[in-house]
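Intended use. Records like the one below are meant for learning the mapping from a protein sequence to its folded structure. Do not use them to infer anything beyond what is encoded.
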Amino acid sequence: MTDNERQTDRRLERAILELLERRGPTATICPSDAARAVYAGDDDGWRALMEPARSAARRLVEAGEVDITQAGRPVDPATARGPIRIRRAR
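Structure written out for the chain above:
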């Protein structure tokens, strides 16, 4: 992993936590919200940050900071397939 990739990972983790902080205690965000917040351009280049954003969310689950949900219920990040949401850990 390059230093630039590590910096992007940290920025994605911070973006997830900051986005959740600005919303209500039960609110959720999509990984794309974090990817868009970190991406500097005006085009759809943020899409390349989707898997890194999902990985950042998984690290935050391991740290006890957030839950990953599907259909409103927490799921195991290792086995979650398809669209996910991120919320503060409960």
